From TrEMBL:
SUPFAM superfamilies found in the cross-reference section: C-type lectin-like
Protein's cellular compartments: Endoplasmic reticulum lumen
InterPro entries the UniProt entry points to: CTDL_fold, Sulfatase_Mod_Factor_Kinase, SUMF_dom, SUMF_sf
Signal peptide: 1-22
Stretches the record annotates as Disordered: 33-83
Name of the protein described by the UniProt record: Sulfatase modifying factor 1
Biased composition (Basic and acidic residues): 58-67
C-alpha cells in the first residue's frame, strides 16, 4: 500500500494514471468505474523501506519478447486506437508482506488474493492521450480550476522559484506554483511540447476517473495493480527480479543521487521519461514502477485483513486514494512490487 505520507492541498507533479478494463467472465460486460472524491497526496518517496530480498536471480522472464500485448475483445472501443492493453490472466498471488519496514505504510499483512482476468493499459497515460480527452470533452483539470499545483523545486526555473515564499514543512521540496498544471508541469513558464509521449502529470484522482469514463475503462484496484505489477513472478522485490540493476542496466526511471539536491540521472532522465521507455515487465507493462505514481481506485488504509480474498476493492470509505509504483523522484524502495 503506497502510503500518502503527506497531505497537500492539491495535486502533484508526479501523479498519472493507467487504466484497466475488467471483463466479467460470463457476459463480457465491462465492470463500471468507481466514484470518487478529491485526491490529495504527495510523491511519498522514501528511502527507508524494508528489504526482504529472497536472493533469487534477477530479471528472469523480463524481456520485450514475452506476453505480447492483446486487444480486449469484448470491451468498449478504446478512444485511441493506438492504445493497447495487456491481457492479465486470472490467478492467485500474495499481496503485501509480513515483514514491513514501516508499519504505517500499510504494506502488511501478506495475504492470498484471487484476481479475475482483466486488461491493463500497457503504458501510463501520456500527455498526447490526455490532450485527446481534453479536446473531445473540454475537461478542465482540478489543478487548472484551483489555479495552482505542487511542483518539485528541482524542476522549477529560478524565476518561478523566486516568486514562491511558502512550502510544506514536512516536504520542503514541494512548492505550490500558480499556473502549474498538466500543460505546464514545471510551472507557468514550462510546456509539454517536447513531452507529448511522457506521462500526463498534475492529474487528481477525480481527473483520472473523468478520463477513465471518457475512455470507457476504469482505474485498477490496488490488488489488480499489484498483481499486474508482479508480472507473474513471486517473492520478487521488483517487477523484474531482486536486483535493482541486473547486469548493470536500469529498468525504471527513478532517482540516483542524494535526494533532493543531487540528481545524477544515471538512468538517463532527470524528470519523466517517455511512457514507452525501459523494458516492460512480463505482462508487457511499461514503467509500472518509476516514472510517475499511478492512481488506483481503492481508498487508502493501513489496516488489512490477513484473510484470503477475491478481487478486493479496498476499504469502503477513506480520505485518500492509493497510488502505486513510485516516480522519478524515488529511490528504489517505492519501486518495490508491494509499494
Ligand atoms: Ca531518473
Ligand atoms: Ca509508473
Amino acid at each position: 500500500m503506497a502510503a500518502p505520507r503527506l497531505l497537500l492541498g492539491t495535486v502533484l507533479a508526479c501523479l498519472t494514471l493507467r487504466l484497466c478494463l475488467a471483463v466479467c467472465p460470463e457476459t463480457g460486460a465491462v465492470d463500471p468505474g468507481l466514484g470518487g472524491e478529491e485526491a490529495q497526496g504527495s510523491c511519498g518517496c522514501s528511502t527507508s523501506r524494508g528489504n526482504r530480498a529472497p536472493g533469487e536471480a534477477a530479471s528472469r522472464k523480463y524481456s520485450r519478447e514475452v506476453h505480447l500485448p492483446q486487444q480486449p475483445g469484448n470491451g468498449p472501443k478504446d478512444k485511441d486506437e493506438g492504445r493497447q492493453m495487456a491481457s492479465i490472466p486470472a490467478g492467485v498471488f500474495t499481496m503485501g508482506t509480513d515483514e514491513p519496514a514501516i508499519q504505517q505504510d500499510g504494506e502488511w499483512p501478506a495475504r492470498k488474493i484471487h484476481i479475475n482476468h482483466f486488461f491493463m493499459d500497457l503504458y501510463e497515460v501520456s500527455n498526447r492521450e490526455f490532450e485527446k480527452f481534453v479536446n473531445a470533452t473540454g475537461y478542465l483539470t482540478e489543478a487548472e480550476r484551483f489555479g495552482d499545483s505542487f511542483v518539485f523545486e528541482g524542476m522549477l526555473s529560478e524565476q518561478v522559484k523566486s516568486e514562491i515564499h511558502q512550502a510544506v514543512a514536512a516536504a520542503p521540496w514541494w512548492l505550490p506554483v500558480k499556473g502549474a498544471d498538466w500543460k505546464h508541469p514545471d510551472g507557468p513558464d514550462s510546456n509539454i511540447v517536447d513531452r507529448m509521449d511522457h506521462p500526463v502529470l498534475h492529474v487528481s484522482w477525480n481527473d483520472a476517473v473523468a478520463f477513465c469514463t471518457w475512455a470507457g475503462k476504469r482505474l485498477p484496484t490496488e490488488a489488480e495493480w499489484e498483481y499486474s505489477c508482479r508480472g507473474g513472478l513471486e517473492n520478487r522485490l521488483f517487477p523484474w527480479g531482486n536486483k535493482l540493476h541486473p547486469n548493470g542496466q536500469h529498468y525504471a526511471n527513478i532517482w540516483q543521487g542524494d535526494f533532493p539536491t543531487s540528481n545524477t540521472r544515471e538512468d538517463g532522465y532527470k524528470g519523466t521519461a517517455p511512457v514507452t521507455a525501459f523494458p516492460p515487465n512480463s505482462y508487457g507493462l511499461y514503467n509500472i514502477v518509476g516514472n510517475a505514481w499511478e492512481w488506483t481506485s481503492d481508498w487508502w488504509s493501513i489496516s488489512h485483513s490477513a484473510d484470503t480474498a477475491q478481487n478486493p476493492k479496498g476499504p469502503l470509505t477513506g480520505t485518500d486514494r492509493v497510488k502505486k509504483g513510485g516516480s522519478y523522484m524515488c529511490h528504489k524502495w517505492p519501486a518495490h512490487t508491494t509499494a
